[in-house]
Each structure stands twice: as C-alpha cells, then as structure tokens.
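Journal club prep, notes for RB
We'll compare a predicted complex against what the paper describes. Inputs for the EPZ case:
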Amino acid sequence: MDYIINGGRSLNGEISVYGAKNCVLPLLAASVLTDEEVVLHNCPKITDVDNMVRLLQYMGKQIVWQDDTICVCGSLTNTAAPQHLAKLLRGSNLIMGSVLAKYGQINLPLPGGCAIGKRPMDIHLDGMASMGVQIDFADDVLLCRGKPFATTYVLRFPSVGATENLLCAAALAEYETVLCNCATEPEVEALERFLVKMGARIEGIGTPNIKVNGVNKLHGAEFDVIPDRIVTATYISAAVASGGEITVTKCNPSHLRAFLNMLNPRLEITEYQNAIKVKRSRMPVSYGKVITAPYPFFPTDMQSLVLSLAAIADGGDTQICENLFENRLTHIADELALMGADIKVDGNTAYVVGRKLYGADVAAYDLRGGAALVIAGLNAQGITTVKNVENICRGYLNLSDSLRSLGADIVFK
Ligand code: EPZ
C-alpha cells in the first residue's frame, strides 16, 4: 500500500492525539502480572498493538478491545511465545519480565521491529541473570527459567525496554530490588504509575534510580494511556512543512520539551495545558545541531522528522547526530535524496543543507522514517508516492485521514 501526496497545500485546523504505542505495549505486558481485570483506555488500533494483543491471547489471556479501551484478564495457559507473532514487533520482548515474575519461565523468540539497528537484548538478559534467571538460547528462542529474585542492578545504558522488563520482574520479587541508571521516558514513568495502581511498591517514579519492594500478588487496575509524544511531534512537523496554523490537542507539551525547544523561536508556538498551537509564517532557515540521546534529551524517534524539516529548510545548514540506533539515518537520508535533498551522512551524523524538494517515489523502511517522508512530501513540489505504508501503520492511526482533515492532498492506495 502507498500514500500519494500532492505537495504544496498549507494545513490548518485542529487535530487530536491518541494514546502512545510505546505506552500501551509495556502496559499490556504488565497485565500478565495479575489474573484480575486490567482496563486500558486511549489505546490506538494500530498494527503493533493489535499484534501484542494477539500474542497475549495466543498465550491464554482473555482480551476484549472495544473502541479505544482494551480489557485484559485471566491467566496464561502457555509460557512459550509464538515465533510468528513475537517476530512482528520489538515490543514482544516486553513480556519477559512479567511472565518470569508470575510463572517462573518463558520461551521467548527474539523480537522483530524496525530496521534501525541491531537492537541487542544484552541489558535485558544481564539484568534478568542478576535476578537469578537461568537463560539458554536455541534456534533464536530465549529459554528462561526461574522466578526473578531481588537484587541491585545498574543498567549500563538507560534502555527503555530493559527498564520496563526489570520493573515487571521486580514487582513480585520478595524484598527490595534497586535499579540504577533506568530510562526515564514518559512511557516508563507511566508503567511505574500503572504498576503502583496494581499494588506494586515502587519508589523513585520517573527518576533513574528505582526501588521496588516485591509483593505477593498484584491486582487489576484501570489506566489512561498517555498521549503519543512522537505523533504530536509528527503533526507539528506537518504544520512546519506545509505552512498554515495547526492546533494539536489531547497532547502533553511537557513530554516533547527538547523538540519544542529546537523549533523555538523559529516558529510561533503557543502551549496550553493539553494542546500546542503552531504557526509557520516563514520557513525556518535551519535547525542548528541536533543530538539524539535518552530522555529528556532530543528523542531518537523524532530524529527522522527533524531530518525532513532540515531537508526542506530555507537554505541553511543543520547537523543531526544519531546516538542510539546505528541504521536510523541511512535509509531516510537515501530516500530524501531521491526527492533532491542535500544530505551527506558521515558515520552517525547527517549534514543537511535545506532546499526545495521535488515529489518522487520513496519507500518507508521504518515507522518513523516513513512518517518523515510523508512530512517531506507535504512540502515537495509535485507528487510523492510513499511505499511500504504498512511500516507507518505499525505506529500511526489513519495518518493520511488525519492530514487530509487539515487540508493535505494525500490518499491511501
Ligand atoms: C524503545 O525501544 C522504543 N520502542 C523505541 O521506539 C525507541 O526508539 C527506543 O525505546 C529509544 O527511546 C518501544 O518502546 C516499543 P532501548 P527499545 O532499549 O526499548 C541499546 C518506535 O519507533 N540496547 O532504549 O528497544 C539499543 O541498541 C521505536 O516507536 C542495547 O545495547 O530501545 C539502542 O542503541 C523505535 N542492549 C539503545 O540501547 C539492550 O539490551 C536504546 O535502546 C537494549 C538496548
């Protein structure tokens, strides 16, 4: 399937943001920690969430999805995750901690996910081993045995997924687990708050140093998934690329501070409690030097967006340094070059000179890179066809409909 975009139309109006993919996935994984009912509101019906639901259903959880609410209950009947589902998304690896904590064993196929880099799991596995879990590996499947016990563990890097797995592993581990150098992304903090609502005893919520006093049992809980900060940044980028004035609602401006700071004062941005209004009167000349790093610094998931914005800027130089995923720059840079972009990639840094781009046939290699190509197409002269749109649908709900509602000339074919 493709997106066909006729660039040059300015976008105006209001668009609301839905729940964050990277928040729903760990919450669904954490629902394994209890047999009681867990109710998650504001869940987007996107491919990755669908596949995570299918994975948990296959393993025995009873799951009902009504509108944007997902209800999960029951216990697992099987602790071997199916390969055909686990390999569909990176987030499948997030069930490791909760399944081990509740059932003491899991056969977990290596996860799938975007072609943005090697994405090892050494921190996940080292952390689990420090909690006493025996881990073997056969035919691309992790064979994990043993209920995690309390420990003190320092993550060598604040990995989002490893933090989430270790939090779930510790929630039912008797005595106190201390986790140092944890990720502090809003989605990780949301998981910590969700686990507390389930009865977990957690100190240091939202900070890099977390203490978890394990409990015997966790109960059901109800939770509102936080707004998707990457989708918020995507809509803001659409306003910048196309001109006009857009108000993004049901978002949390405090979750994308680094991105907004990068745009200020190049654009007129007004923040409200749960909304951001952006008006582009003049196309920015450049975006200076952008360096990706763990939260609260500039997020790697917004790197492709700023690469597109830099490529269509008004003649100035932008430098973008990607420090998390070794393959995140190359694919999107190559595709933007097909549209005439002036981008030179040297190692993990892209050197961009803004210029007018022209419509071309390009391909979405990964979720965020695909969305960034759509953003470039909104500004490019002529028709841009973005292929492999299924990669974009993994994380974006009806992106073309949303942009068309703001005045974009985009169709999904
Ligand atoms: C999560 O992936 C997100 N995915 C990613 O979003 C996001 O880019 C990433 O965090 C960073 O913010 C979900 O939450 C489902 P990491 P995750 O572990 O947990 C290295 C999207 O587009 N690392 O924080 O896999 C790793 O190679 C996706 O929505 C190890 O070396 O990311 C990377 O360089 C893309 N060993 C860095 O850490 C490990 O055991 C950050 O990875 C784990 C990670």
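Talking point for the session: The chain has a mean pLDDT of 96.
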